[in-house]
Amino acid sequence: MIRKIYKFGGASVKDADAVRNLAQIVAQHKDEDILLVVSAMGKTTNMLEKVLANFREHDGNLGMEALHEVITYHDGIINGLFGEDANPEFGENIAGLFIELWEKLQKTEDPYDYQYDQTVCYGELISTSIIHEYLSKCEIPTRWLDARKYVIAEDEAHFRAANPDWDETRLRISKLNDEHIRGIVCLTQGFIGGTADGKHSVTLGA
């Protein structure tokens, strides 16, 4: 069973040095069956809110400029962590996440709260993907968990302020096979969850 939970906010993973510090902390406790809950890097959530606002105001040029800032920011962290040694498959994974994000940004006909949740969640998904790759590079056995499959909203109508369905959430978590998570670090996202049907992302209320 997981005995300790470590939460790292955006400032704790804001750059390559911060991620290295996280890895050093994790290395000291990796035999304790810990769960890492990690936020989007730095001010990424605010940056994505700006991107979304520009797209919804039908200013594609400003939207793309703002999105490019997000991509450049994360590329800088990746380069700082891996240099020219980044795994090509990892690079493809990150590129794929940004492509998915761009596709979600096109759907400006969707209600704002709904589109917000479908786009802003990528801050956490990208952050934890980068950290997962770096922990693997540091030879720290880590399993990446998609919080949207485990933290289930009780009412999918409340986008941007979802509350967990605790019964369903506990059930989903209980199905994690202890044999598959014992002795390794589990890494997941803060702030986000999903609907029971697995079709939609949600951000969690206060």
UniProtKB/TrEMBL annotation:
Entry keyword set: Kinase, Transferase
One of the GO biological process terms: homoserine biosynthetic process
Residue ranges of the TM segments: none
Gene Ontology CC: one annotated term: cytosol
UniProt keyword annotation of Transferase present: yes
Gene3D superfamilies on file: Acetylglutamate kinase-like (3.40.1160.10)
Protein name: Aspartate kinase
